[in-house]
Amino acid sequence: MSYQIDPDVLQRVAAKVAGLTTDTDEIVMHAVELLADAYPHLIDPGPGRWVGSKAGGVLGKVRFLYFSAREYVVIFGSPTGTQGFSGRYKHVDIHKFLLAGRIDSYDLESDETRPLPSLLPGESTCLQRGHARGLTIAPGSWHIEYGRGAVVTTLPFAMVDTLVMSLELESVRRSTAEFTALLRRRLRR
């Protein structure tokens, strides 16, 4: 099965922008430009729309960059910090490439009582299929998130908390509009 996105490219982008500046807007903008340079047929470097997202209690902002049935790429983060549940995806691996800030996590099923090593700018981690973590995202943390597998199976987790627990219909509407725009763009090519 071939994929369009190479995690090694995402890792290089994160390493390149980490520590360039403390201005997170600049970091995100530069990361999107580098991703668009690497994948001009998939990622639009133009200004995107941020959408509120709450999944597993993790509240933040997401910018959708690429979405297909088998892969997605987003920028996610929070200016003030957040914590919650990673989700458990049976059919998708979730990679995180930290651009700024810090993410602390722990394995929910492990007999280990210590946290996993902190994720720092320029570093990456992968939540393997079927695993789950508790996590804390420090204030000012932003990362590239890449999902690989049966992406549609992630949508209930990504939307239900926002819709049912928060009753935040506008964020669900905006997310749906962003998914639709990305899919239309793919179909036009």
Automatic annotation (TrEMBL):
It is found in: Endoplasmic reticulum membrane. Keywords: Endoplasmic reticulum, Membrane, Transmembrane, Transmembrane helix. InterPro entries: ERG2_sigma1_rcpt-like. The keyword Transmembrane helix applies. It holds the Pfam family ERG2_Sigma1R. PANTHER family: SIGMA 1-TYPE OPIOID RECEPTOR-RELATED, SIGMA NON-OPIOID INTRACELLULAR RECEPTOR 1. This is Uncharacterized protein.
